Amino acid sequence: MKYITKVAMASLKGTIMIEKIIAICILCVTFSFADDGIKLPHLTMPDNNLTFEMIEGYQDYKIVATHFRTDKNELRYILANEIGYNALKEKAKVMPEGSKIVKIGWSVKKMPSFPVALEADKIQRVEYMIKDSKKFDANGDHWGYARFVKNKGEFKSWDKGVKGCISCHSGVKESDYLFTKMQATFE
Predict the structure, then answer these.
(1) 102, 149, 157, 159: which has the fewest Cβ within 10 Å?
(2) Strands of the chain, DSSP E
(3) β partners of residue 23
(4) pLDDT band at 187 (very low <50, low <70, confident <90, very high)
C-alpha cells in the first residue's frame, strides 16, 4: 500500500464554530490506496468528455492548500500535479499547459481523540481543472473542468455540466481562473 500523509492546520474554539477561529489544532489525513488494481471509476463529464481517469495518480500529487467551505461544512484539499505545483510554487501569473489542479472535498467530524478538533471524515467530491488551450479555448480561459460528486456511496459525474464551474471561476480571471495560491508554510 502507498500511504501519503498530509497535515493541515486549522483553528477552532469552544463550540467549534468556524467564525470563532482561535486555538490551533492539527488535522491529519492519511490517503491510503492499495496497489492491488483499484482504479478510479469510469465516469465522464457530459459536456466536455473529461473523465475521472484523467487524474489517475492524483493521490501522488502535492497538496498546495487547504480550504474550508462554511456553506458546505467541507474541508478541501487542493492538490497539483508536478507541472501545476511548480508553477504555483514559482507564483506563475499564467499556469502552463498540462497543469492539473485537483480539489478533494471531505465532510468533517469531531476527532474522537481530541474533541475540540475536527478531522476529515468522508470524501464528498473530487473536482479538477486541466490547462489545455487546444481543447478548452471556447471560454477563453483554457481550462477544462470536471466534478465528480459522491452520492449514496458512489461517485457520479456532475449532471449540471461545467457552466457553473466556468461562471464561478470567471470571477478570478486575474489569477488565471484559480482561487488557490500556494499556501505558505513556516514563513
Answers:
(1) 159
(2) 2-12, 23-33, 62-69, 74-80, 100-111, 114-131, 143-151, 154-157
(3) 12
(4) low
Per-residue pLDDT band for 16 (boundaries 50, 70, 90) equals very low
- Beta carbons of 57 and 102 less than 8 angstroms apart: no
| Fold annotation for 37-175 | Chalcone isomerase (3.50.70)
How far apart (Å, rounded) are the C-alpha atoms in residues 89 and 98? Answer: 16
**Residue 134 to residue 97: CA distance in whole angstroms:** 9
Please say whether the beta carbons of 24 and 7 come within 8 A. no
C-alpha 87/C-alpha 45 separation (Å) is 26
Q: Are the beta carbons of 135 and 129 closer than 8 angstroms?
A: no
Quick one: what percent of the chain has pLDDT higher than 90?
55
Residue-range domain boundaries for the chain:
37-175
Type of residue at 27: L
Q: Of residues 38 and 143, which shows the higher confidence score?
A: 143
Q: Sort strands 100-111 and 2-12 into parallel, antiparallel or unpaired.
A: unpaired
